[in-house]
Design a protein that fits this description.
The protein has 21 helices and 45 strands. With 813 residues, it is of the alpha+beta class. A hairpin with a 5-residue loop joins strand 5 and strand 6. 35% of the residues are buried.
Length: 813
């Protein structure tokens, strides 16, 4: 959201600079993300001054040129050659002096230099509109009023002022700050409390508004009261449809709006001043002079201001007349109901629409407007009439409009006055610092809250302003106090304490943080991707439709399904980076996946952590070349993670099937629950994101993993005092057997002594028969209480070898 500093200063008396104001606003929660200077004319006409033409004579060698002597207010006249047909002695003109740079209307820049024109020296240039970037006119030079002060800077004479524009990252809850007035309130409170300044907010005065004389007025009927709690309107006649004054155009341009005409500019001006959207209708286009706020039938065609015909939903709130739709309420105007250059009678609308209804309509029709942005967040019903009066007074001032009859104001149900009880001790308890009760009261009063003491109690009752639609609870008031008091003023304690017992998997947020910290330490980079994916793409990859959750009103056709897995978001990130010569990636994401629930039941949402490794596992060095990542690499990452998370060693790996992977495995806990799945992404899947090399993926179920951690007792184990024994086997197996099967069978066969297994060689080549491969596996055996004998080791290895031969067909090479 853009806020003009010059505009803001018309609403607040405050003697500080824009940089300090930006810092104060950021501290209050209205984060100023960017601050930049805005110039109505590029360069602000630096070096251009008002000149007085003392004499004007014919050029000796050019019929169309004249040689002028011009007083620039320096005490000496300058000679300037001019080709404009309208230059004459005695004129006040705008002169670009030598050394100045002009930015013309066509975008080109020109540096003024001393030059000879047909043999006559010229020291400057008398300027036309287009040469100064003030317009497109080039028929002649600009001639000023005779009372213009000679030597005055052109910017000063023309009233041009530079501005500073704040780009504010507004959070969705701060609907009250969606206009300059709301920002001024926060700035005044912060400056008064933190800086000790006297800052007063000047709310626009509408006391001069009066109902108009007799005449035809537009009547209003609200049929959809549940989504339109308040609707106000006013008829005006004899409206002069000319341009708005320069001061208004300047303010609108400073926040990125293009001035159109007096009526449209006033509605935009009031919206950005007060935060209340307005809409102007051509009253002569409203059939029978009646407006009806209602819903139209499903599929009703309606052409919006952009010329597109849209099919309405029966849930869309519409502003209509007896003939049909005039406007999509709170979102977008209609093509045939807006004001034009020929409009002389208008109906001004100011309303309060239901936020959810407007949000759904805007998403349904993919329309994101300034009005819908505000209505979606909730507007103040108390300012509906104030904004209407403000607009009417401006139109009377700048467009000679006349109010006709009484204002329409329909609000069948009163808006309750909200009160919240605040216990001052809760402020100290929640913020971790002591703030005096008097300071709490003062902050709230500076923010326009009404503070009353509860009789016989230390608690206070706080009346909430109607424009603070986000304040409902005690904790909301405490947040208000902190915003103005300042988070930077909350002191850090001298000592920090933490429990000696490790945090188990009971707190999901802490557990997720532990996971993320560990993965970052292992060299993985965290990414965040959208929860929405492309349904058509999922279908092409073979994902059944009944396994997907489709949105009724998607933002776009490419984001119409809730993601069933984190895989596709990570692959998209990998594809983006690979296209920019970064193929070797170690990524992780922590997010939620979605699956349809039982018929009639809620959908299933699961918190997951996913890993993706692409390209080479090790970069090229003088010792070795790059090695592509393999499935066992990511399986080892999961094993390391499970060990670090203190998950019991009583877990097992087994092969898994998944259409997204050409090879996959899963690890289960002692109760059989799946903790994680790993897989080598199928080439057809990775190719969708233009990935050609190996892509290894793992996905952990955070809930299952945290339960496994919680049930594992925390303990300590001494360093083994007795030696371990390693025996290696070279196993000949079928090509389809994965290493995880070898490990599963071996661990089941020897639960007592087998401590570790390592796959240190894989061979597939001409020396082996077709369909076979060789695994060289090391087995580490150890007893924590004594030294193993050779006979014990032989018996253990015999059990392992027999089990491998029986269950996976392995035999020694």
């Amino acid at each position: 959201m853009r806020i003009s500093w010059n505009w803001l200063r018309t609403l607040i008396d405050l003697d500080i600079g824009p940089e300090r104001a930006a810092a104060l606003l950021t501290n209050t929660g209205l984060e100023v993300e960017h601050l930049h200077r805005e110039e109505p004319i590029k360069g602000m006409l630096a070096g251009v001054v008002v000149g007085h033409v003392l004499s004007c004579g014919k050029h000796p060698d050019a019929d169309r040129l004249q040689v002028c002597m011009v007083d620039l207010g320096t005490g000496a006249a300058e000679q300037i050659v001019c080709g404009a047909p309208n230059v004459a002695e005695g004129q006040k003109v705008l002169v670009a002096t030598v050394g100045s740079m002009l930015y013309m209307a066509d975008g080109t820049a020109l540096t003024i230099k001393k030059a000879k024109i047909r043999g006559v020296e010229s020291r400057g240039m008398i300027c036309a509109e287009d040469e100064l970037g003030l317009g497109g006119g080039h028929e002649g030079i600009i001639v000023l009023d005779a009372n213009a002060r000679t030597g005055a800077p052109a910017a000063e004479h023309l009233g041009l002022r530079s501005d500073v524009v704040f780009e504010i990252g507004l959070t969705p809850n701060r609907a009250d700050a969606m206009g300059h007035l709301g920002v001024a309130r926060d700035l005044a409170a912060a400056a008064t409390y933190r800086e000790g300044l006297s800052a007063q907010v000047r709310t626009p005065d509408v006391s001069a508004f009066r109902p108009g004389g007799a005449g035809p007025v537009i009547s209003v009927t609200v049929e959809a009261e549940h989504v339109c709690p308040r609707y106000a309107g006013l008829t005006l006649r004899n409206v002069r449809m000319g341009p708005s004054p320069e001061w208004m155009q300047e303010r609108l341009r400073s926040i990125g709006l293009r001035p159109i005409n007096a009526v449209v500019d006033v509605t935009n001006y009031v919206m950005h001043e007060l935060g209340q959207p307005l809409h102007a209708f051509d009253a002569d286009r409203i059939h029978e002079g009646r407006i009806v706020v209602r819903h139209l039938s499903e599929g009703t065609p309606f052409t919006t201001l952009d010329g597109k015909e849209r099919r309405l939903s029966a849930e869309d709130l519409m502003i209509t007349d007896p003939e049909g739709g005039l406007c999509i309420a709170g979102v977008y105007g209609g093509l045939h109901s807006g004001v034009t250059d020929g409009t002389s009678r208008i109906f001004l609308e100011s309303a309060c629409f239901d936020a959810v209804s407007i949000r759904r309509t805007a998403r349904r029709h993919a329309l994101n407007t300034d009005a819908s942005f505000r209505f979606e967040r909730g507007v103040d019903p108390g300012i509906t009439v104030v904004a209407l009066k403000r607009a009417a007074l401006l139109l009377q001032e700048i467009a000679d409009a006349e109010v006709v009859g009484e204002m329409v104001d329909i609000h069948p149900h009163p808006f309750p006055h909200r009160e919240v009880t605040l216990d001052p001790t809760a402020v100290d308890r929640l913020l971790g610092t002591e703030i005096a009760v008097d300071h709490v009261r003062r902050i709230l009063e500076l923010l326009d809250y009404e503070v009353k003491t509860v009789g016989g109690s230390s608690k206070i009752t706080v009346g909430v302003p109607p424009y603070r639609t986000d304040v409902h609870r005690e904790v909301d008031l405490i947040e208000e106090v902190l915003r103005i008091h300042g988070q930077d003023r909350v002191p850090l304690p001298e000592r920090l304490s933490c429990p000696s017992v490790p945090v188990k998997g009971t707190d999901p947020a802490l557990f997720r943080q532990r996971l993320g910290t560990y993965l970052a330490a292992r060299g993985f980079q965290e990414v965040m991707t959208s929860s929405l994916v492309n349904g058509a793409q999922m279908h092409r990859l073979g994902v059944a439709g009944e396994k997907l959750i489709r949105l009724r009103n998607p933002l776009s056709a490419e984001m119409d399904v809730m993601r069933p897995s984190l895989l596709h978001g990570l692959l998209a990130v990998a594809g983006y980076n690979t296209a920019r010569q970064r193929p070797d990636l170690r990524l992780f994401e922590q997010g939620r996946t979605y699956a349809p629930g039982p018929i009639g039941g809620p959908h299933v949402e699961t918190d997951r952590t996913a890993l993706l490794i692409t390209g080479a596992l090790h970069r090229e060095s003088w010792r070795e070349g790059p090695r592509p990542a393999e499935l066992d690499d990511i399986r080892q990452e999961i094993e390391e993670l499970l060990g670090r998370m203190l998950v019991s060693g009583d877990r097992s790996w087994s092969m898994a099937t998944d259409m997204m992977f050409e090879a996959a495995a899963e690890v289960r806990d002692r109760e059989g629950g799946v903790l994680a799945r790993v897989g080598r992404v199928a080439p057809a899947v990775s190719a969708v994101h233009d990935l050609r090399g190996p892509c290894l993926y793992a996905e952990l179920d955070e809930l299952a993993l945290s339960r496994a951690v919680a049930t594992h007792p925390t303990g300590y184990q001494e360093v083994p005092r007795f030696p371990a024994v390693r025996r290696d086997l070279s196993l000949l197996i079928d090509s389809g057997v994965q290493y995880v099967e070898i490990e599963r069978v071996a661990r089941q066969a020897e639960r007592g002594l087998l401590r570790e297994m390592v796959l240190f060689d894989v061979y597939e080549g001409e020396k082996l028969q077709e369909g076979k491969k060789s695994y060289a596996v090391g087995f580490v055996l150890q007893d924590p209480t004594r030294t193993l004998t050779d006979a014990e080791v032989d018996r253990s290895m015999g059990r392992i070898q027999a089990a491998l031969e029986e269950q996976v067909g392995a035999r020694l090479r």
